[in-house]
Write a structure and sequence with these properties.
Largest sheet: 2 strands, antiparallel
Distance between the termini: 75 Å
Number of helices: 18
Number of strands: 2
Strand order of the largest sheet: 1-2
Number of domains: 3
Helix content: 55-70%
Shape: elongated
Length: 381
């Protein structure tokens, strides 16, 4: 055990030889090697390499099976060693490649079956395994370092889904929605969000998805409190329009919203006053510009949004609709409308009827208001 008597900043040659070649250690030797490993400083490149060798020694001699209590005490340190080995590698390794380079070591601190399930999946494919990714990310700091970027979008989706379920309870369809109930719902939803287990994995500044009349609309949010408030605004305005207490926003016909549901809660008229004024003002400002085009809507978004938010502090709902009609999302929407007109095996059509339908689409408000990218794509279909 001469090697274990060296201090970490001494020559590592003897220790390096020991952890690579030593046979099964006794209890005293285990204490020596583990104590020595815990003193290593990861900021020193040589000591970092030695720390990884210590982890290899632990795995090779089955500390996890022979001395479970000692291994439990060392598990956090092992994860820290592997995280530093991953983050200090230049150029940065892809997570899959790093896992292959330490294929015997990462199962010490990560759930093996779950990692095997997701490690080779792409960003889109992994979305179907949200619970598995969450399990890996929350299992140790290594899981977080490797898969947190992949989990961020998944976590946001799971988090937002839970907020929508909570909102169902806060604004049930069998109770009248008033100014007071909306304020209570905003405060309660924010409190629920702050206590959510996924909150550390969700970025406050992000493009969130909000639901208006059954359609998910993207809108940027910068704070969790703002996110909760917006979510409540989208919900009560949905109910107000479907209950005919608030007039439809003048561009709603361009977006394919759901039909009126069978049960709609009663919404207080006083709650809708500011929204009604702001919606009318927006339409008048657009009509003042003359011909309605995508450029006009974008101008409204840029130059008039502050004025409209002064009239109705919850005007973020209408701004999201404006963006959906004329922003980047309109490209996907108008292209999907065009593809829906094409013949399929289940729905055959003549070339003439398709051309007529496409011609109508090109001259529709939906096309004229879509962004230039979407218009160009449709013309090539």
């Amino acid at each position: 055990m001469t090697a274990t008597k060296q201090k970490p900043n001494a020559d590592h040659k003897l220790m390096h030889q020991y952890v690579q070649t030593a046979g099964t250690p006794n209890v005293t030797e285990w204490v020596g090697i583990l104590s020595w490993g815990l003193q290593l400083r990861f900021s020193n490149e040589k000591q970092c390499v030695m720390a990884v060798d210590c982890v290899r020694f632990i795995e090779r001699h089955n500390l996890q099976g022979l001395h479970k209590t000692a291994f439990k005490l060392m598990k956090g340190w092992i994860a820290d060693v592997l995280v530093h080995a991953y983050s200090s590698h230049r150029p940065r390794m892809p997570p899959t490649k790093f896992l292959e380079s330490v294929y015997k070591l990462w199962p010490l601190v990560l759930p093996k079956d779950e990692v095997e399930t997701i490690k080779d999946l792409g960003k889109d494919a992994v979305k179907a395994h949200g619970d598995t990714v969450q399990c890996v990310v929350q299992s140790s700091v290594l899981g977080k370092a490797l898969f947190a970027p992949l989990f961020r979008d998944i976590a946001a989706g799971m988090y937002e889904k839970d907020l929508e379920k909570e909102l169902d309870k806060l604004l049930p369809t069998n109770k009248k929605i008033t100014e007071e109930s909306v304020l209570i719902a905003k405060a309660s939803l924010h409190a629920f969000a702050e206590g959510h287990e996924l909150l550390p994995s969700v970025c406050a500044c992000r493009m969130a998805t909000y639901y208006y009349r059954g359609v998910g609309l993207p809108r940027r949010t910068d704070e969790f409190a703002e996110d909760a408030s917006l979510r409540v605004s989208f919900r009560w305005k949905t109910h107000a329009v479907e209950g005919k207490v608030l007039e439809e926003f003048w561009l709603e016909s361009v977006v394919n919203f759901r039909p009126k549901p069978a049960v709609v809660p009663v919404v207080c008229k006083n709650l809708c006053k500011a929204a009604a004024v702001a919606r009318t003002s927006c339409r008048e400002k657009a009509e003042f510009e003359g011909e309605l085009t995508s450029a006009v809507l974008k101008s409204l978004l840029v130059t008039k949004s502050y004025q409209l938010l002064q009239i109705d502090p919850e005007y973020g709902v209408e701004l999201a609709i404006l963006s959906a009609v004329s922003g980047d999302g309109s490209s996907e929407r108008i292209c999907q409308s065009a593809f829906d007109l094409l013949p399929t095996e289940q729905n055959p059509k003549t070339p003439e009827s398709v051309m007529v339908s496409l011609e109508k689409l090109v001259h529709s408000n939906a096309f004229c208001l879509a962004c230039a990218t979407g218009q160009s794509k449709v013309k090539y279909i």
